[in-house]
Input
Amino acid sequence: MTQWVYAFSEGKADGRAHMANLLGGKGANLAEMCALNLPVPPGFTITTDVCRHYYAHEKQFPTDLTEQVDRNIKALEALMGCRFGDAYNPLLVSVRSGAASSMPGMLDTVLNLGLNDQTVQGLARVSQNRVFALDSYRRFIQMFGNVVLDMGHDDFEDILQWHKDNKGAIYDTDLDENDWQGVIRDYKAKVHEITKEPFPQDSQDQLWRAIRAVFNSWENQRARVYRQIHNISPHLGTAVNIQVMVFGNRGQDCATGVAFTRNPSTGTKAIFGEYLINAQGEDVVAGIRTPLSLSKATSEEPETSMEATMPTVYNQLLSVSHTLEQHFKDMQDIEFTVQNQKLWMLQTRNGKRTAAASLKIAVDMVAEGLITKEEAVLRVTPESLDQLLHPTLDPKAKKTFLAKGLPASPGAACGSIVFTADEAEARTRKGDAVILVRAETSPEDIHGMHAARGILTSKGGMTSHAAVVARGMGKPCVSGASSVRIDAKKKTMTVAGQTFGEGDFITLDGATGEVFAGKVPTVDPNISGDFQAFMTWADGFRTLRVLTNAETPVDAQTARDFGAEGIGLCRTEHMFFAEDRLRLVREMILADNAQERVRPLQALQAMQRDDFVTILKTMAGYPVMIRLLDPPLHEFMHLHDHELADLAKHVGKSVDAVRSRLDKLKESNPMLGHRGCRLGISYPDIYEMQVRAIFQAQHIATQAIGTAAQPQIMLPLIANRAEMTLLTTMIHGVAAECFQALGQDLPYVVGTMIELPRACLVADELAESADFFSFGSNDLTQTTYGLSRDDAGSFLDAYYSQGLLSHDPFVTLDQQGVGALITMAIERGRATKPTLKVGICGEHGGDPASIHFCHQQGMDYVSCSPYRVPIARLAAAQVALKTPKALRKVN
Amino acid sequence: MTQWVYAFSEGKADGRAHMANLLGGKGANLAEMCALNLPVPPGFTITTDVCRHYYAHEKQFPTDLTEQVDRNIKALEALMGCRFGDAYNPLLVSVRSGAASSMPGMLDTVLNLGLNDQTVQGLARVSQNRVFALDSYRRFIQMFGNVVLDMGHDDFEDILQWHKDNKGAIYDTDLDENDWQGVIRDYKAKVHEITKEPFPQDSQDQLWRAIRAVFNSWENQRARVYRQIHNISPHLGTAVNIQVMVFGNRGQDCATGVAFTRNPSTGTKAIFGEYLINAQGEDVVAGIRTPLSLSKATSEEPETSMEATMPTVYNQLLSVSHTLEQHFKDMQDIEFTVQNQKLWMLQTRNGKRTAAASLKIAVDMVAEGLITKEEAVLRVTPESLDQLLHPTLDPKAKKTFLAKGLPASPGAACGSIVFTADEAEARTRKGDAVILVRAETSPEDIHGMHAARGILTSKGGMTSHAAVVARGMGKPCVSGASSVRIDAKKKTMTVAGQTFGEGDFITLDGATGEVFAGKVPTVDPNISGDFQAFMTWADGFRTLRVLTNAETPVDAQTARDFGAEGIGLCRTEHMFFAEDRLRLVREMILADNAQERVRPLQALQAMQRDDFVTILKTMAGYPVMIRLLDPPLHEFMHLHDHELADLAKHVGKSVDAVRSRLDKLKESNPMLGHRGCRLGISYPDIYEMQVRAIFQAQHIATQAIGTAAQPQIMLPLIANRAEMTLLTTMIHGVAAECFQALGQDLPYVVGTMIELPRACLVADELAESADFFSFGSNDLTQTTYGLSRDDAGSFLDAYYSQGLLSHDPFVTLDQQGVGALITMAIERGRATKPTLKVGICGEHGGDPASIHFCHQQGMDYVSCSPYRVPIARLAAAQVALKTPKALRKVN
Output
């Protein structure tokens, strides 16, 4: 016989905390508290098996469930000396849902079940408190009406308010016996009116309808949407918890409250919570009366605190709180009721907390000997570290919401609007704080993005140019705010019916994607000493190296400060966009032949060399993986008409000739066009220039820092062996020539980006001449999925809303598709060259779930933008701790 | 001991025809002819093993080679009764290279080797013909100088011409003994001047230098380039053939000639060739004297024909010709020399021929009992059929070359230039023949492409829009002619320094990619009855079904006429571009919500239904695979400013609103954007409309044709299971609803395009709800390779010229990359659903090499443009005949 029902009462319980899948989180922890001898109202849990059975059998319960529930009700009757439905001494119960993980949107709670027109009299007699009994009854009708009969909140609140107004009462507690009788009468009439049936009087009927309502709520619209968003299986199901009622509303020595065992905002070790005297649980939430603080220390009126009003119970609560923390080894979020000075525990669970609190609690608990460093490292959500590294909006500030875009780069920023990168730079130079507002950004806007406090775009997704660059800079960015209409010519932005011009202030919250009107105050990040200690523990556990994607000395230094162990992706073309270089780059592009390219290439070579020297010095002792020119040349040729004339004059060609060259550079699908190593094949002199600059810089940096600089040359967009062979041969040739000129051989390696499906398929051949593979997972996702990350924003919403995609594949690696190709490429590459180094340098390199995958595939490193380095370090540590060594594919 | 040298002489030979890899094609066939007792000058072949040894050992010969060559020379001396280098009765030899397959660009022939200042006297004595001897000597010096000493052609021709002018001679034969002595003296002086050495007098030295020169020529620049282009392994190597000299220049009863055993242009069964009396082989090629026809029938002056001048030898030649055809069972290309009325065979090989000849010869030889139908089917190159289906340029016409682009769609066309599709249509209506000239074409140009005789574009590759559509229409197209500058505004085209305007005539050769000025006469195709018979044989052998890509009734009918067994790809969007529909499509696109889309969708539904009815009727009894809307919506929105205003008025929106919507539709990489099934997810009503139109049409067509129409609904750009499930569920839902309304259930199946790498990786999941897979190999190549077919033209040239790519991957399937994904997808798909039907509908479906691959992977069908259907049928037959059944993966 299947056990459908698990009982618990003080000191003993059928279940335990680890049985959350069967008993739900609430039920499992109630059982655990009972087993700990903590004061828990006795009761029982109907398991999630019943829920699954219910849905598998057209909403029929298992045949033997009734008998098991009856038996447990009888046991409660025996324990409490009262009877369910008994008019003289009625047993009353609460019915609560409880899934394995808490799920907003589901039916929550029905209290006081068992009351009817008769039993309410018995309750009045037994409690010798008629007002309490009537109040409990009307609460029951109200809750049962809301959650079981599907009636509206206002159906009841309007009646209650009418009675209070009629009486001139402010609080519910101001109503007397007669008032409550009137309320109950009117409530019942309303139920009859809406449901066309009288309010159910039979306790068994009440109980089973409540149980059925809980199970039905598992599949209601809100619950389904929530599960879809949070990737929760619909097969988990919910449990139902039935407990003997304890009453916080039975008099002035009664109360109800909620508490965190430590401060969930700061992590400070002291109980933190609220309570209400003479109230039931929902009153705390309802906000009719203002709840009071538990402790004197956190109270504005210490004499109202529970510590002052109920010192004994308060101390008992502290003791329970301590027991729970010692037992669960984590900060607890608890609910309790005090009935006639006796404390009853209604719920405990691990408490939600801010990143700062999470970190402090983890570090403190290690100091207290409660948990190990390993456990501490596993406690903090890597993503949450982001909160610690950026300013945030002052939570107390008033805000005027304008629009919601994508949370493209975290942090809060406030400034006056500018519409061009040049204006951003100009105003910043004058000392203004500005927000750069663009339909989308391009590489030419980089200087403006650097200057601005934050970036807002109306187009583009989480991995659009704006988003990627902003994250790299650690700068707040809201992208793809499609309700914002930008008129770049008129320099206006229209949103939410308002038009903003240059100079008007807005505020961005890059962590939520929200845009607000005017200036909203922000709070600076506060990285405590705990942060450093904690990260050092994490570093001790991880096996993946964490590198960074950086090309400016500032970014490189930021990344070093955040713990990066080298550069995994230095995009040399970013160095081409500075004003003094852009002209040279354009001259090079407009050259009709290699001869004409000589002059600009020589000038660029000196500049690139100097860039590389700085970066190699910053990363002294660490590898610096330098990717040769990647983007299509037209990215350097966004020109206004007057610039075009200037340029034509500068290069000594006709405007028509320049325009014709620009036309030829245009591409239908630049992502799949003349870029990456294809440039190096068409214009070998450009790649040769870059390689020469690298070796010259290596020579200079090595002499300057006294230790060998470690450049690693990386070829982008390789698709076949012939490209790889040709270009590595070229690099080795240039190396030989440079080393001869320098009179010194320098160490270097050559590798390839793996960013095309074909490269994965022929990885065995590529590994013949590659020393390392760096997965360019952004482009690999674009090609594998046939999905342009710049364009996907416009249609992926339909995918999310219909549940066709659970994650943005540009944020979290698509393991089934892209991941399968990565796995294949690593296997094939290492089959050819077992010493092959493998890493990832796409956006996924900073995403914890993707890092998890990278670790399991046996990669050597991940590389991410500077501000995600700490996140990656922690994620790498966690996966190393979680993954049995046997499961990891190692080199 | 390795046998490095293979001897042959009349009646016996060490080698045979099948040993071409070892002896080269020429040597193997000389041996075979000897074995057949045909008159071949005795000699021997130095094997390709020696060539490989030579390059593997720093150009050293095997040590025992000298001894083997010496022994064979001695054998020739004994046979001929003369001695190598003997001043009185010298042995003279020819030295010829001979690789396994003939390779232009390599050293070809040195004749008369063994002559020097002494032996020339002996030859004069023995032949009693001093002029002949001297002529032979000067020829030897000249050929040796050219091919062994690397001297220029003019170094000698200038001297010869001087002597002829001096004498007032027209022909070489006008020179006398003294003249020749002067020529020889001057030749030797020139050799000394250029090489700083006297002309070698030692016969052994001459021989070994000639042998070495042949081997060296294997690695000369031209040979290497040729091998690269034709995918010939450098390790094959060449052989060297050394034969006793026979002389066609020894008097008026001597001659030299070449012949085909049947007419290589028409296939007519009659010897076809030319000869020269008193000449050596190179004279025929050199064009100094005009060669004469062999037979009276083909001669303009029958009395000069060999049939008339040397009737006995001519009959002997006919007899040899017959023997060779009977033996080799194919038309032969032969070289011969007549020395004093005796015929000597110098070479035989299978003759090159036109497609028409190829077909006729194959069919005739079956009738003659020479070959089987299987052999006949294997004889004709599938690609060559293209020549039979299109007009070609009159080979005799004079042409003024302007430019060379890509041979995008075969056939020749001549017409006056137009620069817009509308103009093309207007002028064609007036009866003009026009050529549409565009930088590139878009789907909106289709009506103009239909109207034009041919299409010329300056951008785009072999698989650009223009190329694909033109091939589909069977219309000549030259694409990517990058030297053509088009100014669409001024309506001019500038090329080769000339500017052409509207109305000027040009001529295209789509088979070669050439563009000519003015009108060049063309020759119409002539599909004989042989074609039908031959194709019927082919159909008997193939197992792959051949379908077509078509959406217009005309194309569908053309394809049926060419033998298509259904439609493998009907691109419904092509039906959207007609003028009356485009307005509705735009109205649909500009709708703000589904409600606004109802009206245009209903109108479109009726039109689509009618389209489908016609096509289903045309393909009565065959499957018609209909792809739902695929291209991004902006493809329908190329609007001029005035059209925009009209449109805005029509749809009742402001111009700004329309413009803003157009802006939102723009994409960075449309190929990877909002298209394919993504449209069906965002706008389910569009797909529902199309599906409804299909079922309604099926109902109407089935009733009209009395047999079930077979629509197969195809979903484009599927990337994951969720898309597939959602959309198949939608289709089944619409089907149920339609069938209820129609009062009849109709048969249909639903399948998916496989055109993304991810689709291949999750093919097992897609097969759960797909009845068939159709590989969209164009897009699959684009994504797997990360290569935009519209943009690749600009940089792939550098790949071909550097040998990084041997084939255009959009023409011939990349088996290693894209093919590996296809193999994976078929395996995974059929693992889920063994009955899954699989085919290909990209451009590769009409490419013989790709069809080969498709057959081996166990596909059920290929689908290609109508004009490639015969090619596909023949290719499918050939691969079925060539592939052992065991090697084919079958369902």
The mean pLDDT of chain A is 91. The CA atoms of residues 409 and 477 of chain A lie 5 Å apart.
